[in-house]
Amino acid sequence: MNKPGTKKKRPLGIPDHEDKIVQRALVKILNAIYENDFLDSSFGFRPNRGCHDALKILNVYLEKRPTNYVVDADIKGFFDNVNHEWMMKFLKHRINDPNLLRIIARFLKGGYLEEGKYYESDKGTPQGGVISPILANVYLHYVLDLWFEKVVRKQCKGKAYIVRYADDFVCCFQYREDAEAFYSALIKRLEKFNLEVAEDKTTIISFGRNADSSGHGKPPTFDFLGFTHYCSKSQNGNFRVKRKTARKKVRAKLKSQKEWLKANRTMDIRLIMDRLVRSLKGYYNYYCITDNTLAVENFLFHVKQLLFKWMNRRSQRKSFSWDKFNIFLKKYPLLRPRVRVNIYDLKTSISYIL
Known about the structure:
GrpII_Intron_Splice-Mob/Def, Alpha-Beta Plaits, 354 residues, 13% strand, Group II intron reverse transcriptase/maturase
């Protein structure tokens, strides 16, 4: 299966029905064990936490804390390179039941099928398995979260913060020397656990109210959880961090919309529009956050262009002019974007930053 937004392929180890039942039971057990252990900096695949919560807390660190530098880090092929021996060592810290440990070990080594051929797996977590996210959280809890909290922050001269969602994380620092020291230490830390920093995707940038643009006009930006974060100002001229949909995510989504419309252009028009409305609703639920409405409206404009193009190719005769197309959209209207997530609403997230 292709990794979204790239041409890179990853093997899928899809469990059968019986395995899924067992894995779901294991997930409940592991959540009960580890939920109290996991730190507040971790947001991925945890009860009552999500991407928007991670974005809200990161926004606090960027706007309200003395953040001047950001380490935008990426772990190279994390889910494909989790070391099984280390994973089992981590699990044994909290689990004494040998039967439970044996079952987890069996799922780790489940392997995958490709073109009818079975391949064994001696590393990585099974892609497609419901147990993979919680195992990934356990692994990074020991490899990254605890290390950052107990070692990195104590060695920093200034303030330091981390926000992690699965294997995607951002670290904020007050001083550049702390950021550089962390980056150097991170490489060695990950090597110890058979992981590797994707150096082409990991950078240290000046970011925050005192960001240095180095004569380029604007401070650099970074991507996190599908959004490009950039320095800006409020209407009152105060420092603000704003977000817009990352270009890579826009291109990938428009490509999938194009391929679906091309393949299904002869379908009943009511079914096409119903599917398109549902797709836009899901897109808006995630991307319609504070300051991003304009980018989502631009996305909607391109979707309309794709719809116009492929509806005109339902037959050899051209079906629509733009005027007729606009009349058609009045009969089958597409949802207009509006802010659905207020990035400054911390009612459900305030405990993370106290």
